[in-house]
Automatic annotation (TrEMBL):
GO terms for cellular component: plasma membrane. Its main location: membrane. Pfam families: DUF421. It is a multi-pass membrane protein. Keywords: Cell membrane, Membrane, Transmembrane, Transmembrane helix. This is YetF C-terminal domain-containing protein. It comes from Caballeronia terrestris. Residues 176-227 are annotated as: Disordered. Residues 93-165 form the YetF C-terminal domain. The keyword Transferase does not apply. Residues 213-227 have a biased composition (Basic and acidic residues). It is found in: Cell membrane.
Amino acid sequence: MTLIESLFGSGRDLNSLQMGARAAAVFIAALVLIRISGRRSFGQRSPFDYVVAILLGATLSRIIVGASPAAPTAIASFVIVSLHRILAWGCVHSERLERLVGGAPRELYRDGRFDQRQMSAALITETDVFESVRRQLGSADLSRIDKVLLERNGEISLIRTPDDNCSDSINRARKANETNPHRTAAPDSSDAWSTRSREEDQRLQGACGSRSHNGDCREANPLRDRT
């Protein structure tokens, strides 16, 4: 019996130490394979990223329990990871392939109306949409929502209306002005500070109103950085 056989065992007749040694070796091999595959396999989570994660886990686990020979199983795992990397490279250079492999976002809600055809195709109900709205906004008020999208990874994302974005920006600017620690440092200038704060609010409101058609509302309040 060689040292490798005594350490890792052979077949399914494995003791606790041999199975532990196999688990450690498979863990290191999995890290190497994930590094080869790239970060997207466990980051972006598109459908074919899930396929790689499931297949890789199922294949490598067979080595640990001795259900399959180690060398052929390791080669199969390397093939899975290589195919994933090749497809990912192809998706970067081909929009058609990316759409075929990864899918495309679905617009579930727009301008106050649900798209029943898209929701039926995605197997999403209105209850699912309201749940995402409550979780992300803390409210079930759809009047604040411009669009609802089902992303390629299965998550539901919300695009708020331009007016709602501007209102939040104004409220955050006002709160920053009210909590600025330097505001009470010079009592003689409190009236001037209040006047400037009101002017900044009016300027920000005007800027939001002029850009509300494209939702571009920047929180450019210099009073936040007053020293």
